[in-house]
């Protein structure tokens, strides 16, 4: 009854031409609200009947204590400057396209950059501060970068095995590297023609989207994914469904959710979800639709933006389930806010903004002095 009155009045309150009619009524209602507020805690408790929610002295009921609402996602930097040497020629340079950072931030998490070529103990220390990890796109498939991806991936599996729910998103190159690592086959990748193109996503027969990144998509949007070009591709390599499923290790680790077709009508695996871990790998780029403008073929329709938003929300919702509670000050010391992005879209980079890391980083020097 009271709720009805409140929403009724606020509807009219925003319609300024009618506001004057309602002013006397509003005064009456706000008097009533004072009374209601004093009791709302009790009202909400009985409404939800949930004993696990602690009694709150404020008007806002406590949120689910099992969920961590201050999650932090580690993003691994990739070799290079992200701008074809226009920012740095240093062989030590690595970068994170800011679109991945915005993707994570848009869903309610903060980012700690995991700088791939920092001393391993520093990188692992930073990894201990996060509730989820993201591997970006790129080209590096060997050397230190490959080894670090493998090391971080192992740590994520270990932490999940130990009972923490720590999600991983592996995007584009990330899917390819996980395929190489899990299959234990350095030659698992095949060539595909999917550079700079928007595509549809084809769900495999009887794909079960429950508990996956697609769980939050409306039936309408799921349908549109298979008919409209709502996702961005930019890759020369991939794995065909046959190779993927023929490899026992890959087939037992991942469930294939979607495939795509390249410019030569060759089919590749495009979204996979781990059977027993909160690990999702994408051959496509969920982060680009909302945050990259360099290529004219990147989809920016409202549907396409929803794809980005749902994908970001799923990662962060999984990270909130992580039971890692890192020391607040150490998190602050290492957040990406210790770095400034550079606008590179204007000078022709494929990324609009990049975070550039040239070692040793300030954050790591600081950390090193305290180790
Ligand atoms: C990197 O080297 C190239 C070729 O020598 C040069 O044109 C470019 O300006 C250099 N970039 C930077 C950031 O110094």
Automatic annotation (TrEMBL):
Q: Which Pfam families match?
A: GATase
SUPFAM superfamilies per UniProt: Class I glutamine amidotransferase-like
Instruction: Name all Glutamine amidotransferase domain ranges.
Output: 103-298
Q: Which InterPro entries match?
A: Class_I_gatase-like, GATASE, Pept_C26_g-glut_hydrolase
Q: Name one GO biological process term.
A: tetrahydrofolylpolyglutamate metabolic process
| Enzyme class per UniProt | hydrolase
Entry EC no(s): 3.4.19.9
One CC-aspect GO term: vacuole
Q: Which domain of life is it from?
A: Eukaryota
Q: Which residues form the active site?
A: 172, 285
Q: Where are the transmembrane segments?
A: 12-29
Please list the GO terms describing molecular function: gamma-glutamyl-peptidase activity
Which keywords describe this protein according to UniProt?
Answer: Hydrolase, Membrane, Secreted, Signal, Transmembrane, Transmembrane helix
| Catalysed reaction equations from the record | (6S)-5,6,7,8-tetrahydrofolyl-(gamma-L-Glu)(n) + (n-1) H2O = (6S)-5,6,7,8-tetrahydrofolate + (n-1) L-glutamate
* Subcellular location(s) of the protein: Secreted, Extracellular space
- Principal subcellular localisation of the protein: secreted
Please state which protein family the record places this protein in.
Answer: Belongs to the peptidase C26 family.
PANTHER family (UniProt xref): FOLATE GAMMA-GLUTAMYL HYDROLASE (PTHR11315:SF0), PROTEASE FAMILY C26 GAMMA-GLUTAMYL HYDROLASE (PTHR11315)
Which protein is depicted?
Answer: folate gamma-glutamyl hydrolase
Source organism of this protein record: Quillaja saponaria (Soap bark tree)
């Amino acid at each position: 009854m009271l709720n009805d009155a409140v929403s009724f009045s606020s509807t009219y309150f925003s319609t300024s031409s009618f506001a004057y009619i309602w002013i006397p009524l509003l005064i009456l209602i706000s008097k009533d609200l004072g009374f209601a507020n004093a009791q709302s805690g009790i009202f909400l408790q009985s409404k939800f009947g949930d004993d696990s929610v602690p009694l709150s002295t404020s008007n806002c009921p406590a949120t689910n204590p099992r969920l961590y609402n201050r999650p932090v996602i580690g993003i691994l930097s990739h070799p290079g400057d992200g701008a074809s040497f226009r920012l740095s020629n240093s062989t030590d340079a690595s970068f994170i396209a800011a679109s991945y950072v915005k993707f994570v931030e848009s869903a309610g998490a903060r980012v700690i950059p995991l700088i791939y070529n920092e001393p391993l103990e520093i990188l692992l220390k930073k990894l201990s501060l996060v509730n989820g990890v993201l591997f970006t796109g790129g080209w590096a498939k060997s050397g230190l970068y490959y080894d670090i991806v493998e090391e971080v991936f192992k740590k994520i599996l270990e932490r999940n095995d130990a009972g923490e729910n720590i999600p991983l998103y592996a995007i584009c190159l990330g899917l390819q590297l996980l395929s190489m690592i899990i299959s234990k086959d350095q030659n698992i990748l095949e060539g595909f023609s999917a550079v700079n193109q928007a595509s549809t996503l084809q769900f495999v027969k009887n794909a079960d989207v429950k508990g996956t990144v697609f769980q939050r998509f409306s039936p309408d949007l799921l349908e549109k994914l298979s008919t409209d070009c709502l996702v961005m591709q930019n890759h020369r390599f991939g794995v065909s469904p046959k190779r993927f499923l023929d490899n026992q290790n890959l087939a037992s680790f991942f469930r294939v959710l979607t495939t795509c077709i390249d410019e030569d009508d060759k089919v590749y695996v495009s979204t996979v979800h781990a059977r027993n871990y909160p690990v999702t790998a994408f051959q496509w780029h969920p982060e680009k639709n909302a945050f990259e403008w360099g290529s004219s073929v990147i989809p920016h329709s409202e549907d396409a933006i929803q794809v980005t938003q749902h994908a970001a929300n799923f990662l962060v919702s999984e990270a909130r389930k992580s039971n890692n509670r890192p020391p607040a000050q150490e998190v602050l010391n290492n957040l990406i806010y210790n770095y400034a992005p550079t606008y590179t879209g204007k000078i022709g980079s494929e990324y609009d903004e990049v975070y550039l890391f040239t070692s040793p980083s300030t954050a790591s020097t600081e950390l090193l002095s305290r180790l």
